[in-house]
Amino acid sequence: MEVLLLGTGAADGWPNPWCTCRSCAWARRDPARARTHTSALLDGTLLLDCGPDVPRQADRAGVGLAGVQAVLLTHGHWDHADPAAVLTRAWAGRRPPLAVHGPASALARLTEWRAPHATDGSDGLTLVPLGPDDEVEVVGYRVRALGAAHTAGSAPEKVGAEAVLYDITAPDGARLLYATDTGPLPAATLDAVSGRAYDLVLLDETFGTITDHGTGHLDLATFPHALAELRRRGALTPATEVIAVHLGHHNPPGPELERILAAWGARAVPDLASVQVRTGPDPVPAAAARHHRPQRELVLGGARSGKSHYAEQRLAAVPDVTYVATSGARPDDREWAARIARHRARRPASWHTAETSDLAPVLAQAPAGSAVLVDCLTLWLTAVLDETQAWDGPDGNDVVERRIAELVAALATTAAQVVLVSNEVGSGVVPAYASGRLFQDRLGELNTRIAAVCDEVTLVVAGRPVRLGG
After folding, report:
1. pTM confidence score
2. CA distances from 100 to 20, 72, 85, 115, 333 (A)
3. What is the number of alpha carbons within 13 Å of residue 187 lying toward its C-beta?
4. Which of 113, 120, 128, 408 could join 101 via S-S bond, C-beta 3.0 to 4.6 A?
5. CA distance 314 to 262
6. Cβ distance 326 to 376 under 8 Å?
7. Where does CATH 3.60.15.10 sit in the chain?
């Protein structure tokens, strides 16, 4: 199956023509970066959504729309269901059969543009209402409509009444999930896609860093959680290609967005990109080969630099994560307890938490396909120095060295994906006390040895990641 992405943008496109933000400024520097209304053309025959930009985009791709035999509309908003496309078809003198499927509210927009005498079907147009769980064969494709959460706060009984997603199986067996214009996927939809092992998923990611938009769309906080849930249910496999669509200017500029998406096993493609969907066994999954997903990553930063938040974001799309908290309990420290509570509140509820300083066994026992987040090595080293009573003299140095060596060896051989957080101490002043100098020396050594076995090392400054290599 060939999937031509006629457009990958949100309703206002990217850049927004009225906006001067840094994201829009980046997009304007190269006309090829402009994104138009999201739509896809399958094998030149089946059109998914048809907003006002779509006809011109099809012409720019050199294919036009003359070969389209059927259209699937997700909902009736103007950027997905533009009735002018039907009008211009009639102007071209073309009346071959064209079936348009979608929610009744979307089809109603088209009827306004049909000539009064054409309601008998003489214009070749057939309108076919589809709701959640409806299945139909469309020009050789097996199509199932699924409920979308496009209206924020929708009651369960109203999910999908105005907007749907599409589960599509091509004649060659390729499986596609077209999931634009939806918030977190409804429970019934997740049940329906369980075990589907899609070859390609086109998933909404509209609002980027804006998380209080209150709309039925995904953003950079909810997008990875949707991926994690789809992976947990077997809808995504290591070979599934995931492409973020319906992208808006609230996202970071392209290179930053690509780095974020790549950590989650997803990517963005430009408008008019053609994706060849492969089916069958794939010994080196094309999707995995396209993304840089380090198995071991060390995240460094100063106090309150955003390093913990960045580390959590890196693993947000993994369905099985163990969060290792090395801080230990401080029952008499109310400020520390409040900080711990904030950390717990922002982590996904599905993550497992282990409060321990015994890291080597955790890494050694973690299964392939899972992930471990260690936050943080600074407190881990503190705990080791406490346990060995190595603060005031050399007596515990051998034990400290053994614990560090065990940790490095476990990290080098673990089957899990691991992200470790630590403080960067190389930019500070030399401590005035012997214990402070001991800790600085030990932590600097620990960071260096951990970095040596990591695939990637990232320094976070003011919330911005700077890749140091790997």
Report:
1. 0.90
2. 38, 6, 12, 16, 63
3. 4
4. 128
5. 9
6. yes
7. 2-290
Nearest-10 Cα torsion for 185, 1, 76, 227: 20
Choosing from 117, 217, 343, 352, the catalytic residue is 343
376 vs 101: CA distance, rounded Å = 52
Q: Regarding predicted confidence, which is higher, 90 or 255? A: 255
Place of tokens 């078809």: 89
pLDDT of residue 284: 45
Mean pLDDT of the chain: 89
Burial 397-416 (b: 16+ CB within 10 A, else e): eeebeebbebbbebbeebeb
343 is catalytic: yes
For residues 357 and 268, the model is more confident at 268
Q: Which pLDDT score, from 0 to 100, does residue 93 have?
A: 78
H/E/C letters for each residue in 80-129? CECCHHHHHHHHCCCCCCEEEEECHHHHHHHHCCCCHHHCCCCCCEEEEE
Residue 293, pLDDT > 70, answer no
Q: Where in the chain is the domain with CATH 3.40.50.300?
A: 296-469
Contact between residue 299 and residue 458 where contact means Cβ atoms under 8 Å apart: yes
Burial of 91: CB neighbours in 10 Å, binned 0-12, 13-18, 19+? exposed
Q: What is the pLDDT of residue 347?
A: 78
Q: Are 72 and 42 in contact (CB under 8 A)?
A: no
- The arithmetic mean of pLDDT across residues 436-460, rounded, is 93
Residue 203: beta bridge partners?
Answer: 179, 244
Residue 196 to residues 177, 178, 200, 279, 356, Cα–Cα distance (Å): 9, 13, 11, 13, 38
Q: At what angle do helices 254-263 and 307-314 cross, to 10 degrees?
A: 60
DSSP 30-52: SGGG-B-B-EEEETTTEEE-B-T
Mean pLDDT confidence for 117-129: 77
User: If 0-12 CB within 10 Å is exposed, 13-18 middle and 19+ buried, where does residue 86 land?
Assistant: buried
pLDDT at 154: 47
The class that CATH gives domain 296-469 is alpha beta
* CA-closest candidate to residue 372, choices 382, 384, 360: 360
Q: Any idea which residue has 């997740």 for tokens?
A: 190
9 three-class SS = strand
Closest-CA residue to 249 (of 7, 11, 15): 15
Domain 2-290 -> CATH class:
alpha beta
Sign, CA dihedral 313-315-321-324, equals: negative
Q: Which residues does residue 169 pair with via DSSP β-bridges, in sequence order?
A: 142, 175
Q: Distance of CA 425 to CAs 400, 411, 448, Å?
A: 19, 22, 11
